[in-house]
Specification:
single chain; 388 residues; alpha/beta; D-Maltodextrin-Binding Protein, domain 2; 2 domains; 8-stranded mixed β-sheet; 5-stranded mixed β-sheet; 12 helices; 16 strands; 30% helix; globular; disordered N terminus
Length: 388
């Protein structure tokens, strides 16, 4: 009972500590109650043989998190816009983490529209799906990351406009290989417990599109005393990669300008070693995923201005944490024109209460919240009269 009371108090305070790995409070003043969890196990990159199996069958699902989110009560139920004779064929491709949930959406759709046929099969790989969309071989490419800049550039060169990426689900909290939330980490000895996006841009960027100056000492990031003059040592991911592109788009980019990473950072090709590097460097700061916290480090609260948020399970599940990730349905939508009726209706099902219940039932990825669905509707032009 005492443990339960402590956990509840910690959750209400927005504070989480993982082993010696600390997640800072949501406010500038750190809270005094902490919730302790073990550090994550060390993961390794899949072998070529495992990659081949995942492309053929989809990636094996991990055990679901013990905690599971409730569906947002604001999600609307699906209201068909066509009769049961509505039919046609939808050609789909997806990343290797998505075949299960895509099949669930297909099953839910065919219960309403039994004459609709689907084509979905290997390879299950995001790059192949993006290429198929470019070549017009699929109607929807479900990809568990942002599109590569080269994918967008190739699509724009061919069609004169960018592909449309419609959010279809959240990522996971800390599931290895399944869109875990991105976190900013520092050494346990570091006194800093939160940073704004402007500060992160000052740390990680060389273009500084948010208007700030480069941050090269910890004093520029709020540390005082002996820490004020200590240098900032940056650990980041070599472009291009899913984590790297995600952070670039949300932190380094501004307006229509693409931000660039600072050149003097230590860049790793893969995310796996970053937590250990920061744990070994008192002056280090790095970007990694919650699934890769296999060393004792401090995880910072981040956000816009004073609205910094910690990556607790609740904050990620409710899409309050700003570096929570998304999966997308990518389509070829000509600006100002609606999607084909079958594509549009299927995306409407996915973004409905029924479609997000399918996400919730699998128990790995997180269902979208109402405000995310509203944004997805606008992106895809899915609301009535939504060809804008």
């Amino acid at each position: 009972m005492r443990l339960l009371q402590v956990c509840r108090a910690a959750l209400s305070a927005g504070v989480l500590a993982l082993g010696p790995l600390t997640v800072a409070a949501q406010t500038a003043a750190p809270a005094t109650i902490e919730w302790h969890l073990p550090v994550e196990q060390t993961h390794v990159k899949q072998t070529e043989a495992q990659d081949a199996v995942a492309m053929e069958r989809g990636r094996a699902l991990p055990a679901p998190e013990v905690l599971q989110p409730a569906l947002d009560p604001g999600l609307e139920g699906f209201r068909p816009r066509h009769g049961r004779d509505f039919g046609g064929t939808l050609r789909l491709m997806c990343s290797d983490v998505l075949p299960g949930v895509v099949r669930s959406w297909m099953a839910s759709f065919t219960k309403i529209y039994p004459k609709v046929k689907f084509v979905l099969g290997p390879p299950y790989e995001g790059g192949d799906a993006a290429k198929a969309l470019l070549e017009g071989r699929v109607d929807i490419a479900f990809i568990s990351r942002e599109l590569k800049p080269t994918d967008v550039a190739s699509f724009r060169a061919k069609y004169g406009y960018a592909p449309t990426s419609v959010p279809v689900s959240g990522g996971s909290w800390r599931q290895f290989g399944f869109l875990d939330a991105v976190v900013v980490i520092v050494n346990n000895s570091n006194p800093v417990d939160h940073l704004t996006f402007d500060q992160l841009d000052a740390v990680f960027s060389r273009s500084h599109l948010r208007g700030g100056q480069p941050a090269v000492t910890w004093g520029q990031l709020g540390a005082s005393g002996a820490w004020a003059d200590k240098s900032v040592h940056v650990y980041a991911l070599q472009p291009w990669g899913g984590y790297e592109e995600f952070v670039r788009e949300r932190v380094l980019d501004a307006g229509r300008k693409r931000g660039d990473w600072r050149t003097d950072a230590h860049f790793d090709k893969l995310v796996f070693p970053i937590a250990a590097r920061v744990a070994a460097d008192p002056e280090g700061i790095g970007l990694t995923g919650l699934a890769f916290l296999d060393a004792p480090v401090k995880v910072l609260a981040v956000g816009q201005g004073a609205d910094v948020v910690s990556p607790t399970y609740t904050n990620v599940a409710l899409a309050k944490y700003p570096l929570s990730r998304l999966a997308y349905g990518n389509v070829n939508r000509q600006p100002g024109k609606p999607l084909p009726p079958l594509v549009r209706e299927f995306l409407r099902l996915i973004l409905s209460r029924e479609g997000q219940r399918d996400v919730r039932s699998e128990g790995i990825l997180l269902p979208l919240r109402e405000f995310q669905v509203e944004a997805a509707d606008r992106i895809g032009g899915l609301a009535p009269g939504g060809a804008k």
